[in-house]
Design goal:
8 helices; mainly alpha; globular; single chain
Length: about 210
């Protein structure tokens, strides 16, 4: 009985100190990924640049998307919301690092800020939304897997990767504005791919 009680306490961890610690980790991971991406852009070119960028984007997305849900051991909406909270707070940590360090050391141009109109007040909300959405969907996928009897983050990541490749290719073929055979296009495709993967992993679940 005691072991069962401990197991129940060990899932859906959402206490505030735990969320804060997770947020710091996610913020640091994001900052490292952005720094590496900027260094690759600055010091490489051609196929090498594309390959390294793809690796950085894939690794960063994998960690930010699935680690929060693993940490909270998401099984119900409580753990899913906790993972999203880690993601949101993690973007705050990242943006502090970004404003105080990354934007001042000259490793990357203003291209990231241009996404949001050239102002931090437009640029930062992009990170808030994406940084919350990724772990939210990742935790949802983990919870869906758990409901089926087993969690496998590599399988979840593989599903997301396949869907992202398909969606990215479709966008290029259909001539979606700015879509091309490039790392940014397929990086952006991860966002809708997560929504699709979440829906797929939720199919056929038994409802209480």
């Amino acid at each position: 009985m005691s072991s069962a009680v401990e197991l129940e306490r060990d899932i859906d961890r959402t206490d505030v100190p735990f969320i804060v610690r997770g947020a710091v980790k996610v913020g640091l991971i994001t900052a490292i990924a952005v720094l590496l991406y900027s260094l690759v852009s600055r010091f490489t070119g051609g196929v090498v640049e594309s390959a390294l960028k793809a690796f950085v984007v894939a690794a960063g997305a994998y960690l930010v998307t699935f680690l929060p849900g693993k940490w909270t051991r998401a099984r119900t909406i409580e753990g899913i919301a906790g993972a999203a909270g880690i993601g949101l707070a993690g973007t705050v940590v990242y943006l502090i690092i970004d404003v105080t360090l990354l934007q001042t050391i000259g490793t990357y141009t203003n291209r990231f800020r241009e996404i949001g109109g050239g102002s931090n007040w437009w640029y930062h909300p992009v990170w808030w939304m994406v940084g919350t959405f990724l772990p939210w969907m990742g935790a949802f996928i983990i919870a869906n897997q758990a409901a089926r009897g087993g969690v496998s983050v590599p399988k979840a990541a593989g599903l997301v990767a396949v869907v992202a490749l398909v969606l990215g290719a479709v966008a290029v073929v259909l001539h979606v504005p700015h879509a091309e055979w490039s790392v940014p296009t397929f990086g952006v495709a991860i966002i809708p791919a997560l929504a699709v993967a979440t829906a797929i992993t939720g199919l056929g679940q038994r409802r209480a």
